[in-house]
């Protein structure tokens, strides 16, 4: 009796782009289902930003005087960017929850495209942020938000969402490094809070101390908030010397730059998660 | 004879550990056979499964599944394997059926086929009644069965089950053993890891004992039992009756029982399990010998380790076990 291994093959199997797309979409739908079927998740995701919007508008709105611009018009574009930042942290916690549950083990044992789990996760988080931000605009409208025009508002919304999508890949890397949902959440908030609060999201940066202004004016969250504001209010909302076109270009540069760095990093971390 | 799984001199040390999780493991499984990998927590069982299932690259050594190299062509391997195990990796918020269909789709089955195949495996694991309920309503045993269904939906040639019954109650455990035995009866090759000797004994054609990342013994259940002694009846009688009891047992089995004088026990091999116990009781009764104590002693993982390594299994050893549970958390 002879013992032989099955004929050893040397060709490498590949995943076709069509399969990769299908895999990503399956994971997206799975993640959206989780969101839809757990009402507490839906509640937290929508109530929290609505609460921020109402609190800031009614608590701080009176104290912050902006010449010629109602505070709600100033605030809402900032809230859209803040919401996508908070929304993107779900990528980190969601991934670590799957990791803890062993779901990632199973996914990695399946003949899936390499980036499908991360791409599906980030796409689901993008779609959710889109839904939440649409709700924000609606609630904003009820309390007095009036954009300069629908096309400008839609373009601003798209920019905010694309920024959130890029940030999702950053949070994917954070989740893969943190490994546990608790650590991922702490690490995410450490990143989110300085960027959201030391920014032009809620107040003009001119009231901040000089050293902080430098950071607050140039960091990406402010760039995005200022751009969306420029679009929905008009040129008068822009800091002097900035054009709307220039800010859009700068926003797109941040969005692409963050994505180009974070997505290969995350895919690489995902592949080495057990080593 | 064809080998479905071959591991050749596999070494793996985790980044944050200075102790190797796998320290030169070589083993192989014939097509259609069941291999039971037996060892305590942290022995390297999960690490070996992760290497063979392409989740983890070995530091050195080669491994093939169905002739496909796990490092050179992971996707090729993944189309041929199913992975299930201790973490019951199923989605809480999906129904049982949705879980299985999703995994089928990720094996690249077309939608209709994924659905019919899911219905088929749900039927086989006897979960049809609960198939359309969310998994969050399932019991631990049902989750394990669903996990098995998900690992089978892609018609794998080789199935890896990492501690399929760890943490579930003993009654469900036997149900799952029977289910696994039935599921692989059609010729699926199975690599199973376990901490329970009984489990390996019930399911495996070959048992490998792993400790500190090394395979320290390998053989059939019977050959391993010869090493460790198998199931025994332990009988205690008054010293005055001892000689009579030994004679009665010799009469029954054809040989003298071992006399453990420290504990005052006679040890009789129990080839037929509980029936042997009954036979011993009858023999004592016939000889009018009063029994002080009697029990059927099944060898445990500790007995295996004691006889092979001279030390007991240490389930909480904080070496690579920490690494494994860190990922598992």
Task: Give the helix/strand layout.
The complex is a heterodimer of chains A (275) and B (329).
Chain A: E1 4-5, H1 17-37, H2 39-60, H3 71-101, H4 103-108, H5 116-142, H6 150-178, H7 181-197, H8 210-218, H9 220-233, H10 244-271
Chain B: E1 2-12, E2 22-30, E3 34-38, H1 45-52, E4 60-65, E5 68-69, H2 74-78, E6 81-85, H3 96-106, H4 111-124, H5 140-152, E7 158-162, H6 170-183, E8 189-194, H7 197-203, E9 206-211, E10 214-219, H8 221-228, E11 232-236, H9 242-253, E12 258-260, E13 265-269, H10 274-286, E14 293-297, H11 301-309, H12 320-328
Parallel strand pairs in B: 3-8, 3-9, 6-7, 7-8
Antiparallel strand pairs in B: 1-2, 1-4, 4-5, 9-10, 11-13, 11-14, 12-13
Helix pairs in contact in B: 3-4, 3-5, 4-5, 5-6, 8-11, 9-10
Care to describe what's here?
The complex is a heterodimer of chains A (275) and B (329). Chain A is 74% helix and 1% strand. Chain A is an all-alpha fold and 275 residues long. Chain A has one domain (18-271). In chain A, helix 1 (17-37) packs across helix 5 and helix 9 (220-233) crosses helix 10. In chain A, 44% of the residues are buried. By secondary structure, chain B is of the alpha/beta class. Chain B has two domains: 3-226, Rossmann fold, CATH 3.40.50; 231-297, Alpha-Beta Plaits, CATH 3.30.70.100. In chain B, 37% of the residues lie in helices and 24% in strands. Chain B contains twelve helices and 14 strands. In chain B, the strands form three sheets. Chain B has a six-stranded mixed β-sheet, with helices on both faces. In chain B, a hairpin with a 2-residue loop joins strand 4 (60-65) and strand 5. In chain B, helix 8 (221-228) crosses helix 11 (301-309). Chain B is globular, with a radius of gyration of 23 Å. Classes of the chains: A mainly alpha (275), B alpha/beta (329). At the A-B interface, strand 1, helix 1, helix 3 and helix 4 of A face strand 1, strand 5, helix 2, strand 6 and helix 3 of B. Strand 1 of chain A pairs parallel with strand 1 of chain B.
């Amino acid at each position: 009796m002879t013992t032989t291994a099955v004929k050893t093959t040397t060709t490498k199997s590949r995943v076709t782009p069509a399969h990769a797309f299908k895999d990503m979409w399956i994971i997206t739908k799975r993640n959206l289902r989780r969101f839809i079927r757990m009402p507490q998740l839906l509640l937290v995701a929508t109530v929290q930003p609505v609460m921020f919007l109402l609190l800031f508008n009614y608590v701080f709105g009176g104290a912050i005087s902006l010449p010629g611009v109602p505070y709600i018009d100033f605030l809402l574009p900032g809230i859209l960017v803040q919401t996508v930042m908070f929304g993107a942290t779900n990528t980190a916690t969601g991934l670590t929850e799957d990791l803890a549950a062993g779901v990632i083990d199973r996914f990695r044992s399946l003949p899936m495209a390499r980036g499908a789990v991360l791409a599906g996760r980030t796409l689901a988080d993008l779609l959710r942020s889109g839904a939440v931000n649409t709700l924000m605009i609606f609630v904003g409208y009820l309390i007095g938000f009036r954009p300069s025009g629908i096309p400008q508002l839609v373009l601003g919304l798209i920019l905010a969402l694309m920024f959130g999508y890029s940030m999702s890949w950053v949070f994917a890397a954070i989740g893969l490094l943190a490994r546990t949902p608790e650590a991922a959440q702490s690490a995410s908030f450490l990143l989110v809070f300085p960027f959201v609060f030391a920014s032009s999201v809620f107040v003009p940066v001119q009231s901040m101390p000089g050293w902080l202004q430098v950071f607050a004016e140039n960091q990406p969250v402010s760039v995005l908030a200022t751009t969306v504001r420029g679009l929905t209010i008009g040129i008068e909302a822009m800091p002097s010397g900035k054009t709307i076109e220039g800010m859009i270009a700068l926003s797109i540069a941040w969005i692409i730059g963050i994505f180009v760095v974070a997505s290969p990093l995350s895919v690489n971390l995902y592949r080495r998660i057990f080593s | 004879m064809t080998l479905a799984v071959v591991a050749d001199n596999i070494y793996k040390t985790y980044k944050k550990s200075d102790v190797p999780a796998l320290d030169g493991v070589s083993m192989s499984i014939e097509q259609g056979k069941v291999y039971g990998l037996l060892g305590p927590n942290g022995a390297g069982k999960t690490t070996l499964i992760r290497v063979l299932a392409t989740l983890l690259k070995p530091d050195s050594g080669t491994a093939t599944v169905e002739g496909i190299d796990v490092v050179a062509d992971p996707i090729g391997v993944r189309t041929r394997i199913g992975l299930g195990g201790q973490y019951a990796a199923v989605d809480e918020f999906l129904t049982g059926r949705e879980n299985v269909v999703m995994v089928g789709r990720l094996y690249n089955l077309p939608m209709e086929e994924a659905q019919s195949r899911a219905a088929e495996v749900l039927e086989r694991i006897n979960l049809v009644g609960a198939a359309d309920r969310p998994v969050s309503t399932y019991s631990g045993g049902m989750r394990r069965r669903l996990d098995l269904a998900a690992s089978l939906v892609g018609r794998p040639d080789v199935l890896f089950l990492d501690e399929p019954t760890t943490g579930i109650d003993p009654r469900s455990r036997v149900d799952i053993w029977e289910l696994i035995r039935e599921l692989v009866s059609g010729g699926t090759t199975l690599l199973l890891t376990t901490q329970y000797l009984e489990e390996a004994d019930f399911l495996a054609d070959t048992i490998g004992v792993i400790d500190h990342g090394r395979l320290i013994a390998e053989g059939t259940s019977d050959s391993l039992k010869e090493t460790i002694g198998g199931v025994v009846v332990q009988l205690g009688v008054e010293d005055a009756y001892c000689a009579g009891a030994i004679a009665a047992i010799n009469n029954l089995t054809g040989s003298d029982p071992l006399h453990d004088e420290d504990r005052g026990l006679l040890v009789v091999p129990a080839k037929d399990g509980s029936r042997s116990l009954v036979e011993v009781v009858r023999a004592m009764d016939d000889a009018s010998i009063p029994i002080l104590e009697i029990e059927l002693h099944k060898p445990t993982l500790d007995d295996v380790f004691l006889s092979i390594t001279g030390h007991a299994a240490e389930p909480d050893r904080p070496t690579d076990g920490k690494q494994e549970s860190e990922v598992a958390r």
